[in-house]
């Protein structure tokens, strides 16, 4: 038999070190733990078992609380040696104060990518070619003004008839979620490589022009690349008298210096396990110090060009495109591009593997262009197999021509460099030298006494590793536009006008489905019309939807088909608030601006007259009932214009007590864990114990003047959110202030919370959806999206997988 134990330290109760003391909520905690629990407010403590705020005699201490005699007797009778128990407070367990609610996205996924998301206003584009396969240009303003290039990563199709509009951050996360896991891993490699390697153009992060626009990778764009600087050198540095520089006139020296930097840039990719797959002069740029960096956005752009041509299944078209655009891809890479899509799964075998050696071939072609230019023989692509033929012999002939041409241009003085470059063009990647060897050959060609300050580059790299080829990767395979098809968990049946089956294995899945389903859009299930004035309140219960209005009525709608069933009439003033009571006899209670309280029976058939009604006592300050709340189906609480909260008995309509403390209208009430939360126009939230109606604490007394007038509060056990007239919300966790954020341009009139999801609506005619994310030390309010409309949102209720919104234009929208 397991002995009863303290919920804090997990020590079994005894009569010495772990005496059980009973709190007013009914839970027992050992005396030693009670003495050490933090007290944020005088004479109040939060029960570690149920997290309720309960009265605690701070001056007398825990010994003044009653012992739990039954638990103590049970522990002593079954403990083999109670005297030997030692109380170890260093082994306390942490009570989980949160729920395992569904989220719009995986917290781990969001944390992994959030730091790469650039602000929406961080990039200013310079051209109008956004969305194309090639990289675009722009400027980024993140602390400094820098030129950038923009490479499209994901292009989702525009939304359909969904009423939901993603926030900027949510749209970026959605784009990342739609990518395959392989593509995301590839993108992460590129981003991390740009941070670790100085020879890789820096990637600032991910950016989108707006919701439903493509997602771009934003990379730093240097002042000029090799193509811009030397593109007009048709004969290279030493290619001839007309275009190139003479051999003894500094041409070979310039080539060696630039070639050394190009080698280091390619090596930086290999050190990160990346293989470019194709290279060109435009892939290399000069940084501010004159060093050469590789621009991966340009590499991706070249790769997409090759994929576009290879899709035509024409070798000649690909060869021509590569030659015309100075795209240098090794023979084995070109072979793969031509045969990958059309070969059978078992016949796509490559003669030679693709790896770091493939970049060595492309590197040699870049160096040869810089050295000789367009005079180099151009039949290097004939080795690509077609129809089972083998043109290796022709390729070997071409390499020999290149060697002979280099000998004519360079002479015997640069024999080692010539041999190295020709060896880089070997048909077998395994016979090609490493990038480090190419760099060493260039370094040794320089006059050593003059260039000793350059030092040697000592690099160790696993040559057995093939690396990840970008040109053959997922990012280069991305089509221009991805279809925004729902993922598997979003493919569920929707019954328009009916009640979906949200119960699975005995567990309600509607909350999880709604949060997850928002990534696929939001459908307007029904537009309920019938009220003659602004909708002021919503409630769900007993299979009905109840709506109150300034037209002095309460309407009843069926949750099955959302049809109108009945209208409660009798109020002589505007109906301001509405609650549902789930008693043995379910009730609907409404309060109006004249102080009238009406109790309506909802047993079938629905009656026209109220079961009971009474009025609050009025005085000159009174402006009616503004809010309602119910506790344990026997007490009704009304927040009034006379700054008081009144407790009423639902059995005989008698006034139990009046709670005072607020300095203005009590605009909103909420009940959670035997605590009443009241928000007021005075800008504060007061907490009241529902056991004896005594005040517990006051939140928001330090509120700035412009943040006064709380119009709505919502509570979900440990989280409390208050909405202000200026469009700002304040969030507390366990009565500790966590965050404040502006969500709307104007007053927030309505609010609802379910788990981590917060729904707000107000003066700016939109419903915003946020996620409350964080831990006990930090909490963030992350905008997920919005539901735009043409009228002010005045009432919001989330229930059973549906979102109900009442508007000032007399309508009620039901979203699913």
Could you explain how this protein is built, in words?
- This protein is α+β, with helices and mostly antiparallel strands.
- Among the domains are: 72 residues, no CATH class; 114 residues, Phosphorylase Kinase, domain 1, CATH 3.30.200; 254 residues, Transferase(Phosphotransferase) domain 1 (Transferase(Phosphotransferase), domain 1, Orthogonal Bundle); 115 residues, Methylamine Dehydrogenase, Chain H (7 Propeller), CATH 2.130.10.
- 22% of the residues lie in helices and 30% in strands.
- It contains 16 helices and 47 strands.
- The strands form 14 sheets. A 5-stranded antiparallel beta sheet has the order 5-6-7-10-9.
- Helix 7 runs antiparallel to helix 11, helix 7 runs antiparallel to helix 14 and helix 13 runs antiparallel to helix 14.
- The two termini are 49 Å apart.
- Keywords: Metal-binding, Repeat, WD repeat, Zinc, Zinc-finger.
